[in-house]
């Protein structure tokens, strides 16, 4: 095999594995999607005692088949990648590696095969199949809005955690060990369970004072959920509005981001009516 | 009966059964609404052991009366419909059929009468009575906004499910069978129960590490509920704004966003009466 | 006492009891507020077994004192009201009557004093003290937005209830009596508990299929909470925007409700620049 | 030490302790942040029985070290403050004092060291480190929006509490002590637990009527969470819009809403540079 042929083979593999534009590339991605989902399902089901007892050999066989396929895929990725080391140490490179290691480790360490669920992260890579649809775009709007909300949400979380520590300690002092509030960390855990309206009920206040304080936390939790919701709503609306504003470009200075009802370019003052 | 008379009878039945404009048609729909609700109530109550013991014959009689009425209605629909096969295989045609079959099946198969609750789907058909009110309109705005949000909500659900699988597996490894986390599917179920803030409490983490991870999931679940809410709010606002904005545009300056009762453009003062 | 004097006395009482503009009227309302709250607290505490055992005579005395005061107030309201019958059969008139009857009934019927909590509804009357503040205004914006959302929320609730009936019946068929799903009404109750993310945990699915269906309902419930929230947000924003629009009045035709950036009256076409 | 030197020393200490502009001041704040977090963690962990048994001396030593450091800091704050009494009686002055007292009290009163968790409030002071970032700004937008929503949220809470008292009493009458609804206060507590969708499950209705009423409350609670969320969303949007809108107005046509980097008015084409 000449160097040129080898190069063309590597490029072909690269197109199939890393891209999704060609029919073969798309087929590869759909096959990978099915393999990942099946593989995660197998790992998941193997943990059910009754199933493991009866079908252990089936599970083991399937696991090894999936792992060998993923291992081959991993080495093909390294082989075909123009910058192999950049791939190996990228987020997806590490996920790909972690998706095959636990099976080999399970030969030595019992139970390590459960770490195979990390394969579910590979789904994020296959999300690429939807590249041609509007999903990527929607995902970008969502993640942009979430990143813009991050600072406000962190301020909010800081206040919530301060409340949770203080209220948790108060509940420990009020209720004490006999009601299940055996320590401050447990009381803080209970406060989070209550504030987020999860409410397991494994620990619940027994004294009148404890129940009054609990009622107070519940109503607070019920109310302050409004804050992150409001933040995200506003940011989403803003992101979408900005996305709208970028559709108009000034024909004079080529600046983007005008409002739809703008008469003049806000950057160079060019009158849009000259153009139309 | 001549062909013409037969045709006019079929048309009359069609107007009564399929439409709700005439007084008789409206009366038919209200009677149907009451029959459906009574029938679903009877099926529902029959499942209560104490009631079934004492009133079984009453339940059976009522069930057969309802079924016979619905059967007659079903055949009248087929008879009066201009394209009977199109009706039979339409969504509502199938619901109508499934609403009567279980009673006949219950002669052979015990317990199949509970499938009669499918009759509740027939309520969607009777929603037509409200056609003349603003309900249909509101329903359309809602469903348009939901369809527009669908892509974003699917992206969101995909991310949530990935989180749920990974966290569920981590909880299985951390807590194990002694705390009730008997398998990965059960742990995933618990994670969904916790993330959605339902919190049954039938399974709850016992170890410190498990409780820390659980707290993390709860706060995350409490926070990310903001995302679908924000999405729907923004889409609803957009749908309503579009519904308003598309109704009136100034023919002179092309400014949008006039009130429905405006006589003059608020931007350039053009009289709308010049145009109409 | 002359007729004139009597009339002036009635008017004075009316001003004190029914209005809150004068200092005496305000004092009366604050005293009433305290009496109502104390009275509801007494009724509430009387139901606690340990307290009733030890302080029954205190509770009874206080109850009779409150009732006698409220009875006098009720007759003064009838006496001073210009149209006594209109007052008696108004919402607040009936609440006032129902707030005193149970004490008298408790002489004959045991336990009827607990119906005295209806007194809490009288608080809505005392909300009038806040008339001079911005609370009334805020309440009106809120209730206007809620009324505007009502049609959409009813459509939404109809769909939710249809889902709840169908899913409840499915859970009854899947899980059955051994998991606590003893009848379809109980299963519907459980579905509501789950869909609204309350999650008591007194009934919880045991089978794999039941847990999958339950997960599905939880995620749906977690998602569709976005719908009423979105509806109310949009309506609130609209109500507030409309409230803004009413601040500008056309100096020519006195039509209200112009946008802040309007140049011409949308009703008569008058140019606002002529005026400024 | 001369008076001038003393004054300069006090000013230096003031700059380090009270401000965060200088490198030393920033280092001080970060050290304080770590000390506070460590100290709260120690208090929290001390309450865990197993840990207290084994590491009591470690906990006590650490607690005294933290307390002595905080005491020195407290007196340095008094010493360096230009108006010591204003500092002592300020909110943060009181928090600083309460953060050291419990350790001294624990010599006489057992268990008082748990009140040390109040130190967590000192974190609010250290939030100053983030002064240079956008966090303070975001916090102000959030708190402004929350203050603006306060009146609406209070009206909302008033209505919710009235509902809770009435429904709680009804559940007490319907369910009674045998289902755990032992008194009206307990029933009100249960109603809050249910309405806020927390749902512990320690108390749950058993009778059919009770479950119907409970379902009603759950759906109501599920629906009315929309109200505070809507309120906060609208206020946040308004606050942000105002923050944007007030920054730039065209001096020629008085149109608002320009981007911060706009050179020309998008409405009339006026060059902003003519004006500045």
Your description of this structure?
The structure is a homotetramer of 276-residue chains. By secondary structure, chain A is mainly alpha-helical. Chain A folds into 2 domains: 3-131, Four Helix Bundle (Hemerythrin (Met), subunit A) (Up-down Bundle); 140-239, Helix Hairpins (Orthogonal Bundle). In chain A, 67% of the residues lie in helices and 0% in strands. Chain A is built from 11 helices and no strands. In chain A, α8 runs antiparallel to α10 (208-224). The radius of gyration of chain A is 28 Å and the shape is flat. The model of chain A has no long low-confidence stretch (mean pLDDT 81).
Short description, anyone?
Chain A is mainly alpha-helical. Chain A has two domains: about 5-130, Four Helix Bundle (Hemerythrin (Met), subunit A), CATH 1.20.120; about 140-240, Helix Hairpins.
